[in-house]
Amino acid sequence: MAGLIRMECPRDDDFDAWLELLAIKPSEQLLDGLGDFLQDYLRSSGLKVYVMGLSGGIDSSFLAALLHHRGIPYHGFCLPIDTTTPEETQRGLSVAQAYASLPQGLAYGHLQDFTALYRQISSTFASVCPHSNPVAEGNLKARTRMLFLYHMAQLHGGCVLSTDQLDELLTGFWTLHGDVGDVSPIQLVPKSVEYDLARMLCTRLADPAPLQAAIEAVPTDGLGISRSDLDQLEAESYAQVEDFFREYFLLRRKERDGALSPEERKRREALERTGPVRRFLLSGYKRGGAVLADPRKVAL
Q1: C-alpha–C-alpha distance, residues 103 and 208, integer Å
Q2: Mean pLDDT in residue range 90-113
Q3: What residue numbers bound the domain in which 214 lies?
Q4: Hey, which end of the chain has fewer CB within 10 Å, N or C?
């Protein structure tokens, strides 16, 4: 089948587009289409290989298994750093060993621990600005890992694969220049749908155990900010995150096209106080990317 058509990130006020994305359902066709997209992009771009970090979580493990199943070339690395737990490291390494390849003729392996490098950078920064916080340190860890991934991509004629999904896109739950790479195959796919796609993929794999372990694991960024991703999002489940956004975008669309009743306005305001929607309202600059000034419209 033909690969998925590329699209830009919707504007924050494109409520119709967000609702359409939140309505996506898991299917064998979608699973195949994601594989086609990855295959087609690599072929059309002239690049040789994808590069990605393998945390042992569902997002990177699903994409690693999909690339492996489709025979699409990629290099995967497990990159523990300071606050990564041994369980997370083992899951990431198991995924790498089962589904990832390494560049031929080189001495380094799938596992690269950058704790010492992070601590050196953090200490150097602390000598300039002694006041830090867990989020800032988490961002620093993510960017340290991304330095390595982009270095590997440049050396081997590849590009860095993003592993974020729609729930993270909506909530701004990523580190700029630390998580999102060059190609984002699942960034518009709801996380609840991703879980179902991963279960479908397990039935196609000769060794589904590493992916199944990632499916069952508690989602966490491994950056030491909180116990789990859902703790940071202030939600009980990804289904709840998506339900909040469905209701919120429906109300915003109705408000755009007419007027809300007093009860509907109160509900919209209540949703804006929830963790996921509050994060959405504060993270538009991240979804918008770099802002370019148009010199043609500057008054002379």
Answers
A1: 24
A2: 86
A3: 26-228
A4: C
Indicate whether 21 belongs to any domain. no
One-letter amino acid at 33 equals: G
pTM of the model: 0.93
How far apart CA 169 and CA 275 sit, in angstroms, is 14
216: left (phi over 0), alpha (psi -120 to 50) or beta: alpha
Question: How many domains in the chain?
Answer: 1
Specify the DSSP class assigned to residue 189: S
Residue 11 forms part of a structural domain: no
Q: How many CA atoms lie within 13 A of 266 on its CB side?
A: 3
Contacts of residue 81, defined as CB under 8 A and 6 or more positions apart, other chains included, come to 113, 114, 115, 118, 141, 144, 145, 222
Q: Is the pLDDT of residue 105 over 70?
A: no
pLDDT at residue 102 greater than cutoff 80: no
The domain that holds 196 is classified in CATH as 3.40.50.620
**Does 53 fall in a domain?**
yes
Domain assignment present for 239? no
